[in-house]
Amino acid sequence: MMDLPPDMQDRIVCSIEAAVKYEVPANILLAVAEKEGGKPGQWVRNSNNTYDIGAMQFNTAYLSDLAKYGITPAHVAQAGCYSYTLAAWRLRTHIRNDQGDLWTRVSNYHSYTPHLNAAYRVDLMRRAAKWGKWLDARFATYEVTVAR
After folding, report:
1. Over the chain, what HEC string results?
2. pLDDT given for residue 144 in this prediction
3. Which pTM value belongs to this model?
4. Structural domains of the chain, ranges and CATH numbers in brackets
5. Among 44, 63, 80, 119, who pairs with 52 as Cys (CB 3.0-4.6 Å)?
6. Is-contact 31 127, C-beta < 8 A?
7. Residue 117, exposed/middle/buried by CB under 10 A (0-12, 13-18, 19+)?
8. SUPFAM superfamilies under this entry (predicted)?
9. Predicted local distance difference test score (pLDDT) of residue 143
10. Do the bridges between strand 58-59 and strand 51-53 make them parallel or antiparallel, or are there none, so unpaired?
11. What pLDDT, in 10s, does the model give residues 85-123?
């Protein structure tokens, strides 16, 4: 990965580590990380008066439920892998609990609103396919559903 800029190295390493920890497809988490395009310390105000925070642009609407675990906006905003871990946890929750196909469920990371979800979904699928090829070229992976 030395052919990548340092911020991309962090994104990739943190995304893969978090994907493994929460058993979500690494190409999907990498696609979300790329699509969100956040940076440590970044706060982006949304039209609904929430903020998207940090590298994974984690929405503050989710943080009120997480406050009971001691998770604060400052934790999400900081540099390092924490925001990727939190995003992977959230994606796993969407994958397991939401309705619809996989792409609709993971696009709920962005929005449950159908037209916003659909637009995010199309772009996320394109990015995930690109990241899948990137991962396949660099890592030995196995289909867990295929008998060996």
Report:
1. CCCCCHHHHHHHHHHHHHHHHHCCCHHHHHHHHHHHCCCCCCEEECCCCCEEECCCCEEHHHHHHHHHHCCCHHHHHCCCCHHHHHHHHHHHHHHHHCCCCHHHHHHCCCCCCHHHHHHHHHHHHHHHHHHHHHHHHHCCCCCCCCCC
2. 64
3. 0.90
4. 6-134 (1.10.530)
5. 44
6. yes
7. buried
8. Lysozyme-like
9. 65
10. antiparallel
11. 999 999 999 999 999 999 999 999 999 999 999 999 999
Q: Which residue has the tokens 């990498």?
A: 30
Instruction: State residue 146's pLDDT score.
Output: 59
CA-to-CA separations, 109 to 85, 138, 143, in angstroms, rounded: 14, 27, 25
Please identify which residue in the block is written with the tokens 């943080």: 63
Report the pLDDT value the prediction gives residue 145, as an integer from 0 to 100. Answer: 64
